[in-house]
From TrEMBL:
<dbReference type="Pfam" id="PF13591">
    <property type="entry name" value="MerR_2"/>
</dbReference>
<protein>
    <recommendedName>
        <fullName>Chaperone modulatory protein CbpM</fullName>
    </recommendedName>
</protein>
Length: 120
């Protein structure tokens, strides 16, 4: 775990002031250890993303929370899909084949592209 000074030293382009704003806005959620903010490596990675969005990509400060929220949703959906895929993979072959056929049929119905590899 890192304190504020260590995080600011590690994340290029990050000021203590901006860090504290992001903490107050809830974009980064450090824990408190003995009354001091402590940042995990995942917090440091998120701070690098925030700096990249604002500085390198010039995303407006008011828009950053929405972008981060959308990225969080994407990551959550990817985790859910991975879990679903693992659950399907644990099913008997006949069940997996039925699921595959159902997915293909639904894709054809709603106009989604059909992956030919998965059809067979």
């Amino acid at each position: 775990m890192l304190d504020v000074a260590a995080v600011v030293a590690q994340v290029h382009g990050l000021s203590e002031e901006r860090l504290m704003v992001w903490v107050e806005e809830g974009l980064v959620r450090p824990v408190r250890q003995e009354g001091v903010l402590a940042f995990a490596e995942v917090d440091v990675a998120r701070l690098r993303l925030l700096v990249t969005l604002e500085s390198d990509l010039e995303v407006e400060r008011d828009t950053v929370p929405m972008v981060v929220d959308l990225l969080d949703q994407i990551h959550g959906l990817r985790r859910a899909l991975r879990t679903l895929g693992e659950a399907v993979a644990r099913q008997p072959a006949a069940v997996r084949d039925d699921i595959r056929a159902t997915v293909v049929a639904l894709q054809r119905t709603d106009g989604s592209p059909v992956d030919v590899e998965d059809e067979g």
